[in-house]
Write a structure and sequence with these properties.
alpha/beta, 2 domains, 44% helix
Length: 373
């Protein structure tokens, strides 16, 4: 079971759950925890990034005083064959409503560990996509961002934050204009026939590694209901009346938002300040799909996807169809499963749309001269 251990930090003490035995070790000192003497058997371990993957002069959530001390802990884990990863920082309020509703107003460190255990059990991707120690980049979050973003000593993280800022500016400027998403320059490119066709081909042919999505369609049984969701439907794809070609996706806000992760309102690629090349897909996903590499708080693209597709679109439709309600009740586990199913499937649709659009803008090269930065 990965991860075997879940570690949390609060009120200057560490708290750990062994997921094999479901036993919790509470109120460990930082020194005892970081020596790993409590770990009788080596195993994988996850903890929130705020507790081990960044430094701040004032953060009470960060027990490691310096980067050097944190790196020493990473090295000890490696020598003890402990696979260490860091999850994004998340509010457990809604999960507490789902898994421990009777304790939702009685927050405790032990309940938080139990909630994380339940959440990771139901959402294995949290472990699969968690941050590795080798990818951790330390910055002092108390510094003025301009002191490090504009410095000559760039890192992958700093370059990613520059892209994130540029991306937010793109969405701010667009939302301040009277131009629709479809009529914006990124929208015009996204609605070119060849781009529409290439995205449709990728979505309809997509098969997930875990086998849950086959030929662009995923199915799940929740509370006795067989629910099916197509990646093409998520992006608003429809055939024309003669069934000879694809019409332009009707979900223009979601669809064009994917293109805006690639090019700005002038049609220029976002350039990686570190490599001097257009941003790669992994950086787009890390710094564009979320606000930054540690938090999963909404940026500007995420609300477009969440509001127009995940919640207002498919989640409401499925809840209305099978449960007769529009607003999710997080205390009803089946409705929470619906939200998780819709959110994860939509995420795949946006990722595959972005990949197809990136492929489209990369080829043919001769058509991109006026769009190159």
């Amino acid at each position: 079971m990965n991860p075997r251990y879940i570690a949390d930090y609060g009120v200057k003490k560490f708290h750990v759950m062994d997921r094999d035995t479901k036993k919790c070790i509470m109120d460990m000192s930082h020194d005892k925890f970081s020596r790993l003497g409590w770990m009788k058997e080596s195993g994988s371990m996850i903890m929130e990034s705020s507790h081990g993957a960044r430094t701040s002069r004032k953060s009470k959530a960060q027990p490691f005083e310096t980067e050097e001390k944190a790196r020493e802990f990473y090295e000890l884990c490696e020598s003890r064959e402990v696979e260490l990863k860091f999850s994004p920082e998340k509010s457990l309020f809604k999960w507490r409503e789902t898994y421990y509703p009777e304790e939702q107003y009685k927050k405790s460190d032990e309940i938080d560990l139990k909630i994380w255990d339940a959440v990771i059990t139901d959402n294995s991707f949290i472990w699969d996509t968690a941050l590795l120690p080798k990818n951790v980049e330390f910055i002092d979050s108390d510094e003025d961002p301009q002191d490090w973003i504009d410095s000559g000593n760039l890192t992958k993280y700093k370059a990613g934050r520059i892209y994130n800022n540029q991306l937010n500016d793109t969405f701010r400027l667009h939302k301040a204009s009277d131009i629709s998403y479809k009529k914006s320059l990124p929208g015009q490119r996204a609605y070119e026939t060849d781009c529409i066709d290439l995205v449709a081909k990728r979505l309809s042919n997509h098969n997930s590694d875990d086998g849950k999505i086959k030929n662009g369609v995923t199915q799940i049984k929740i509370d006795g209901h067989d629910i099916e969701l197509s990646l093409l439907d998520i992006m608003g794809y429809e055939r024309n009346s003669k069934d000879t070609a694809w019409k332009g996706p009707k979900k223009s806000t979601q669809y064009v938002s994917c293109m805006m992760l690639l090019i700005d309102l002038n049609g220029e690629f976002y350039i990686n300040a570190l490599t001097k090349k257009p941003m790669g897909y992994k950086d787009m996903k890390q710094f564009g799909f979320v606000s930054n590499s540690f938090h999963q708080k909404p940026g500007f693209a995420r609300p477009n996807w969440y509001w127009h597709g995940i919640r207002r679109g498919w989640c409401e439709y499925i809840l209305q169809k099978y449960y007769g309600v529009k607003t999710i009740d997080y205390q009803v586990l089946e409705q929470h499963e619906v939200m998780t199913f819709v959110r994860n499937t939509c995420r795949v649709a946006y990722e595959q749309t972005l990949k197809a659009m990136k492929q489209y803008l990369d080829i043919p090269k001769s058509n991109l001269d006026k769009f190159a930065a």
